[in-house]
Design a protein that fits this description.
- The complex is a heterodimer of chains A (667) and B (411).
- Chain A is α+β, with helices and mostly antiparallel strands.
- Chain A is built from 15 helices and 33 strands.
- Among the domains of chain A are: 96 residues, no CATH class; 192 residues, Methylamine Dehydrogenase, Chain H, CATH 2.130.10.10; 79 residues, no CATH class.
- The longest helix of chain A is centred in the C-terminal third of the chain and has 22 residues.
- Chain A starts with a strand and ends with a helix.
- In chain B, helix 5 runs antiparallel to helix 6.
- Chain B has a domain of 108 residues.
- The longest helix of chain B is centred in the middle third of the chain and has 35 residues.
- Chain B is extended.
- Chain B is mainly α.
- The chains are: A alpha+beta (667), B mainly alpha (411).
- Chains A and B meet through strand 30 of A and helix 1, helix 2, helix 3 and helix 5 of B.
């Protein structure tokens, strides 16, 4: 078996993860969901059933762009031509008619087109075709082809992000443990704010239920925080923060209460994909960009480029993702892409390098397997590394490269983007947490060995609570609020941190999880020392869906449950308060509906008109007879209504008089 | 339609699998077992061409559940394994091996041996390359068990011979175990791979019977054949063998030199350094300095008092003799931009002093020579040492002050 006999036994203290911080004020804007950018149509669904691959709703997005940014889309020509577009409902007067287009008619045509979407006998309205043919080339501020290309590219990008977003790799949550074991106050570093562009350093008191103390130190950054990495060197914490085009480093002195100081910021032309902090030397980090460049970044000495190669290392893979981490030797860095890992010496990066891991036969990889997250496990064993792929977890030893010392298929539904190591004391097992983003999965593994004995997993892997899992324990809300709550709680995870806490004989593990909405939840696992081989499965009953021990009266239970419920109640209250604020971003200041649509358009139909009633009857009749309707005009072909003759105000000129007579059929 | 039916079937299969997984990860073995019995239905229509088919999944998950389930017995487990063996012909040998490991974990060595012998005699169609390799593995593990019996007999014999009488039957039995073990172990280590256990056992057998040439050949092959992965243990075994044989210093050094090239951070580097320091040849002593500097580059050695004392001793020697100061200069040049922060920071001075006085003594000596008497580490430690009235720290201070010119010369 791949497992050692027994691992340590950890049991969840509560039935679900508990919120650590109150939700931030202001509504969270969820990132796009598949239904936002996919083409929705029954016809399309049928077509797609056979083939794989999604159809992106390109037209709708382009339409959104025109509506949201009219100035950018057709600002100058719009201003030039605005006299020639008429937005009212009434008929145009004579002199204006020759040079003005009535937009209402066009809008009606578009609506009609929209209503017939998916109809196989669809004809384009000639008026629309004529209009688009006429002004496609000059109406738009940005050439339409160019704009469409950009939009398409963006849509593809969004879609691939939805399938797998690797910009979050590493996670944006870090735990800075207390300097000496005595004080139970650590610090949590996490992003927040509506755009996740604020960085918070929050003091957290580790009690039965960890709680935030005081208000956090706060920094506003110029981009969404993708990753927060931290390492402790010489009693000081160094925190690296990565956003797409900027990376920054903060120093946090070990004493509690001392303020973090920003040290340096670098800007990259291409989005950075990785930032790791050296566990060996103060103020040293490694940075990778999507162009395939790896830098050693020292706060004192600046940037040193170690490698620049847009191609992947071992075989061709299209992903621009790169990663880099430190190794047992402070001058040797590992660098990774989807195909494997290499180690290179910063003193002679071109000459000195060796392969550490290769996706392929040596490691017994599956077809299509790719590296997702490499991590240096130096705190457990100086020469060990963790490599996760979408299928498996590997532990590698740099002394015996290419042949993994441990492999385990993790069976997670989404690839593990986050990992956290809690080293055990010598002879004890090390705890590794794996976290996925989209599905919020959390897995606890234990392994031991490496120096004296062979590396092996200890005990069985264990699933921990995800943020979304608490939903079933919460009291039922009003439907729309339930929906909002669900959306909020099942937002993809964005980070993972954990700490071990020893309090005399009691040992516990605290796991923090960050979601994309900026919520930080935490759960406590308690260590069970003595263990019978198979305890009665009490947990099977308590965690069954439906039951909610979290909210039961805490009469028989210890105070923890009550405190957790209280925490939840407070969080829910703050959440609903934040959601009640009118979502300002839906108002659009520059567009008034009154001018584009008449009141009659906005009114719902009072009832079927006589024409509609007539049509309906004909339809019924045709269906009864099994026949078909060739023409939609009423049976008795009425002559088309004559255009209303304009009553001239003054005396008509002779030509007009003659024409009027001719119109009336009076030759 | 049948297509739809297939699709729904696949969906429910996947759902079932995810339930099982969920239960497994929450250690709800009973629930997992119930779901697994439903999942067995998927065997009926196994159209999948996936990497891991349902039968393999059932085997793996079933094993896991039976291993942990409170009401399962070894008998049931064996029964399940037998069924799994017949389920997939291609997997037969793999399942056998896994079964054997489980038996061994439960201490049922005889049953394990029987299973391995059975598997050895199994034949199915034409052997593929993979099957061939798996068969070799099965044989090798059987050989390992033979080796185990052999060493048990050997111990009995040794005990008896101490008592002064010999047992012919036991001896003969032992020899037959040897023959069986040697034949199968020899086979597996011909294939490129990492076979540490097998090689060690095989060499032990050969050495016992005095076949040192064969043992040497095996170890050389294992260490130097380029088809095998670069395995530091191979060189360690070779070195240990040579040491047991009382080989010359020269061959020991050459074995360790290669180990140093592959893994500069290996534990044996301390031995290597001591060996080289004692050497009369200048080149070897030069290599010794390189070895100990390289070892101390690694985080794992950071707080190793022994390694630091090796370096301190050699550096001190060089400084006193005032010959070969350029060696130190050369080694120091590539390190002077990061060793001070890595090894000689004020924080580390404080901590080393608190935790390990002799480590801080050795480090302070090196720091004083490499960075001069004004370096933070040396200053802190010598100050603390003098304050605590420790004689050796006073001597240290004197020594560094006297040789401060060295620092100026190497920097």
């Amino acid at each position: 078996p791949r497992r050692g006999a027994t691992g340590e036994r950890w049991e969840a203290a509560d039935a679900a993860a508990v919120p650590l911080l109150l939700p931030s004020a202001g509504c969270w804007i969820p990132s796009p969901a598949p239904q936002d950018i996919l083409y929705r149509s029954s016809l399309c669904k049928k077509l797609r059933a056979g083939k794989s691959g999604a159809t992106l709703d390109f037209a709708r997005q382009l339409g959104h762009f025109f509506v949201d940014h009219p100035e950018d889309a057709f600002g100058s020509l719009g201003r030039l031509l605005h006299k020639n577009f008429y937005l009212g409902n009434s008929k145009l007067k004579r002199p204006a008619r020759s040079s003005t287009i009535r937009m209402t008619a066009l809008v009606e045509d578009i609506d009609r087109l929209e209503a017939r979407r998916g109809c196989p006998r669809q004809h384009l309205a000639s008026r629309l075709r004529w209009f688009s043919h006429l002004c496609r080339d000059w109406l738009f501020e940005v050439p339409l082809g160019l704009l469409a290309d950009c939009l398409h590219e963006e849509l593809m990008q969004q879609w691939s992000n939805l399938l797998f977003d690797d910009s979050l790799t590493g996670g944006a949550l870090a735990w800075l443990p207390p300097e000496n074991e005595g004080t139970p106050v650590g610090r949590l570093v996490h992003p927040g704010g509506q755009a996740m562009n604020h960085l918070y350093f929050q003091d957290v008191v580790l009690e039965e239920l960890p709680r935030a103390r005081g208000s956090p130190a706060q920094f506003e950054l110029s981009g969404r925080v993708r990753q927060v990495a931290a390492a402790r060197v010489d009693g000081e914490d160094f925190v690296g923060v990565r956003s797409d085009y900027h990376c920054g480093v903060w120093r946090v002195p070990g004493r509690t209460g001392s303020a973090p100081t920003p040290l340096q910021v670098i800007r990259t032309d291409v989005p950075a994909s990785c930032l790791t902090v050296s566990p060996h030397l103060p103020g040293e980090l490694s940075v990778c960009t999507q162009s395939g460049t790896v830098y050693l970044w020292s706060v004192e000495a600046g940037l040193q480029q170690l490698r620049h190669d847009p191609q992947t290392m071992f075989f061709r893979d299209h992903s621009p993702w790169r990663w880099s981490d430190f190794t047992a030797h402070p001058r040797v860095l590992s660098c990774a892409d989807r195909t494997g890992l290499q180690c290179l010496d910063a003193r002679a990066p071109k000459k000195c390098h060796f392969d550490l891991f290769k996706v392929g036969e040596e490691a017994g990889c599956q077809q299509g397997e790719r590296v997702v997250l490499p991590m240096y496990l130096g705190r457990a064993h100086p020469s060990q590394y963790l490599v996760t792929t979408q299928f498996s977890v590997y532990v590698l030893d740099e002394r015996l490269p290419l042949v993994p010392v441990l492999k385990w298929a993790h069976m997670m539904k989404a690839p593990p983007l986050f990992a956290h190591l809690m080293p055990g004391n010598p002879g004890r097992s090390h705890q590794v947490l794996l976290g996925a983003s989209r599905t919020q999965e959390l897995l606890l593994l234990q392994y031991r060995g490496g120096s004296q004995s062979a590396c092996q997993l200890a005990g069985t892997p264990q699933k921990l609570h995800s943020i979304g899992g608490c939903l079933q324990h919460l009291p039922t809300q009003l439907p729309h609020r339930q929906h909002l709550l669900q959306q909020r709680l099942t937002a993809p995870a964005a980070g993972l941190a954990a700490t071990l806490q020893e309090d005399g004989p009691h040992k516990s593990m605290l796991v923090f999880q960050l979601s994309e909405a900026g919520d930080v939840f935490c759960q406590r696992l308690t260590h069970k020392a003595a263990q019978s081989p198979a305890p009665p499965s009490r947990d099977e009953a308590t965690t069954a869906p439906g039951s909610s021990p979290l909210f039961e009266a805490p009469a028989s239970s210890p105070q923890g449950l009550g405190a957790a419920a209280l925490r939840y109640r407070r969080w829910l209250r703050a959440f609903s308060r934040a959601c009640r604020e009118p979502p300002r971003h839906t108002w659009h200041p520059s567009l008034s509906q009154r001018r584009l649509f008449t009141r009659r358009d906005l009114q719902g139909p009072a009832g079927p008109s006589s024409l509609q009633r007539q049509m309906r009857q004909r339809l019924h009749q045709a269906m009864r007879e099994g026949g078909r309707i060739q023409r939609w005009e009423p049976l008795a072909v009425q002559p088309p209504p004559l255009p209303q003759t304009l009553e001239p105000a003054g005396a008509p000129d002779p030509l007009s008089a003659r024409l009027t007579a001719a119109w009336a059929g009076d030759w | 339609s049948s297509h739809e039916h297939k699709l729904n079937f696949r969906k429910s299969k996947e759902a079932c699998l995810s339930y099982i997984q969920d239960a497994l990860l929450q250690k709800q073995w009973k629930r997992a077992a119930e779901f697994l019995t439903c999942y067995v239905e998927s065997l009926e229509k196994d159209y999948s061409r996936e990497h891991v088919g349902p039968s393999e999944i059932i085997w793996r998950i079933g094993t896991e559940i039976l291993w942990h389930h409170s009401q399962s017995s070894m008998k049931e487990f064996n029964c399940f394994m037998e069924q799994m063996k017949t389920l997939g012909v291609k997997r037969y040998l793999k399942v056998c091996l896994e079964h054997v490991f489980h038996l061994l974990c439960n201490g049922q060595i005889d049953e394990a041996y029987q299973n391995l012998s059975l598997a050895e005699s199994w034949r199915f169609g034409e052997q593929t390359a993979i099957q061939d390799k798996e068969m070799k593995l099965v044989e090798a593990y059987r050989g390992l068990l033979d080796y185990y019996s052999w060493s048990k007999q050997k111990n009995i014999l040794l005990e008896h011979s101490e008592d002064g009488f010999s047992d012919l039957a036991v001896e003969q039995e032992m020899h037959s175990y040897f023959r069986k073990a040697a034949v199968s172990l020899k086979e597996i280590i011909k294939i490129p791979g990492v076979w540490d256990v097998f090689v060690k056992c095989y060499v032990d057998l050969l050495e016992f019977y005095g076949d040192h040439n064969e043992a040497r050949q095996v170890l050389n092959e294992y260490a130097y054949n380029s088809k095998f992965p670069a395995n530091p243990n191979a060189h360690v075994y070779l070195y240990q063998f040579l040491k047991r044989q009382g080989e010359s210093k020269k061959s020991l050094i050459s074995a360790l030199k290669i180990l140093h090239d592959i893994v500069p951070s290996h534990e044996l580097m301390i031995d290597f350094n001591t060996m080289l320091q004692k050497s009369k040849k200048r080149k070897k002593r030069r290599l010794g300095l390189e070895v100990i500097f390289a070892a101390l580059d690694y985080a794992g050695w950071k707080e190793d008092a022994k390694a630091w004392s090796c370096l301190a001793r050699q550096v001190k020697q060089i400084v006193i003799s005032e010959k070969h100061l350029d060696w130190i200069t050369q080694e120091w040049n590539s390190r002077k931009d990061w060793w001070p922060a890595f090894h000689f920071s004020r924080y580390l001075a404080k901590r080393n002093w608190q935790e390990n006085k002799s480590l801080s003594y050795e480090k302070a000596l090196v720091a004083g020579i490499l960075l001069g008497k004004d370096c933070k580490y040396f200053k802190y430690v010598s100050h603390q040492g003098c304050k605590a009235q420790l004689k050796r720290f006073r001597m240290l201070k004197k020594f560094v002050n006297r040789h401060n010119s060295v620092y100026l010369r190497i920097s």
